[in-house]
Amino acid sequence: MCSVDEEGAEVFEVLKLIEPLELKCRKCLFEDGNVVLQKKFVYCKTCFVSMVTHKFRATIGKSKLVNRGERVLVCVSGSQSSVTLLHMIWTGLQQSTYKRLTFDPVVLYIDESVLYDYPQDQVNKIQELFEKYGLTYHIVKFAAAVYSDNCLNEDTNIDQYNDKLKNIFSNLSDLTLKEDMLMKLRKRAITKLAELLKCTRIMTAENEHKLSIRLLSNVALGRGSQISLDIGLSVNNKNNDKTSLVTIRPIRNLSAKEIAYYALFNKLEDFMHSNFLTATSEDESIQKTTERFVNDLQVDFPSTVSTIFRTGEKISEKTSAIAYCLLCQGIMDVNMSPSSAMEATKYSKYVSLMGVKALKLSLNDLKNENTNEKKCNGCKCKNKQDLKEEIIMNLCYACTHIIQDLESLDDLPEEILNKEKEKLQFKKMEEQIKDFLL
């Protein structure tokens, strides 16, 4: 490479020679390499599969989260990561005595074909895969898992449930809110099914790459206090008083490239399908924009995903939660100072809606003023408006935007509505008898 100095003479820059990659496996030092990780680590096929399997088993073993004979719900969506997780568990069950996995897996597949255009034979292919492994499995309709208490059996009201689920997503105009709502309803469905199947542990198949994207997108959505729930190895379902459910992510330390090569070497077929983000531009949703941002950086800087992932672990919430969101069951930001970013965002929103009038009122006065403007005395919609306001008061910042975008709350799961109706009744009763209390 050359350049011209002030006197016009050419100055040559000596380029550093790029060291060639070793062609032999860095672990066994004998076999030719088949995989290159982070542009410098070379592995042969045998050593690579062994290394990936060791990562998975070490994550479960060191954490000591699963006891002998414990029922574990393994969630399989048909993605490459979930099929890989299922294969790793099945392989672990076939090992010799001292290496064998000792928990009892129950495989779950939630059929979301009501929202997307699935191939007609996809569910049959997944069922054949489960039968091939010989594990206990359940295939459940998404709408039934969300609305029905008897979702493990055939339900005659499945058409009604499908219509309610479609109404929720058709009323959400923003693609970001649709994807966020889908994740929260899916989480509630998995938790309900784990209780019905009497499982105390839930295993999901998020990898390092997917969790890094989720971390950044959820921070952008206002879920910063829920980072530990989004990417943590184990998450306790603290909002559940009946059973102690723990969600485990055993392949969170594996990259997307490692999972892809593991599936290739073991000839695993995935069953991916379209979703809300399929065939959309990166400007249409926060999740898609974040995914494009991370993927572009990862091409030139192979440590991007791992850096985001490790940084997220360091800034995760360590304090005990005071309140949990009614919809996503995540940690809520309560007792925030007036100078916090959340309160500033709320104030800016009210100023945009109410104009100059908002500048003369405090934030609490603005909330009361906005509520009074929405209510209409003597109208049948007053109770529904009160219920919506009561639900919003028990939601986190991100879930508030979802509920506000819905025209009607009638399509929400019954446990959410019943819980808030009961609270609203107690509140009205308390107002009626407060003058008679000592």
Offer a concise description of the structure.
Helix content is 48%, strand content 9%.
Largest sheet composition: 6 strands, mixed
Q: Strand order across the biggest sheet?
A: 7-6-5-8-10-9
Please provide the ordered H/E string of secondary-structure elements. Answer: EEEEHEHEHEHHHEHHEEHHHHHHHH
Between the first and last Cα atoms, what is the distance in angstroms?
88 Å
User: How much strand?
Assistant: 5-15%
If you had to describe this structure to a student in words, what would you say it looks like?
- The protein is α/β, with parallel strands linked by helices.
- Helix content is 48%, strand content 9%.
- The chain has 16 helices and ten strands.
- The strands form three sheets. Strands 7-6-5-8-10-9 form a six-stranded mixed beta sheet, sandwiched between helices. The chain has a two-stranded antiparallel ribbon with strand order 1-2. A two-stranded antiparallel ribbon has the order 3-4.
Q: How do the strands and helices of this protein lay out in sequence?
A:
Elements: E1 2-4, E2 10-12, E3 35-37, E4 41-43, H1 45-63, E5 71-75, H2 80-93, E6 104-111, H3 122-133, E7 136-141, H4 142-147, H5 158-171, H6 175-196, E8 201-203, H7 208-221, H8 227-231, E9 234-236, E10 246-248, H9 256-265, H10 286-300, H11 304-314, H12 341-354, H13 363-374, H14 382-393, H15 397-405, H16 414-433
Parallel strand pairs: 5-6, 5-8, 6-7, 8-10
Antiparallel strand pairs: 1-2, 3-4, 9-10
Keywords:
six-stranded mixed sheet, 16 helices, alpha/beta, two-stranded antiparallel ribbon, globular, 48% helix, 438 residues
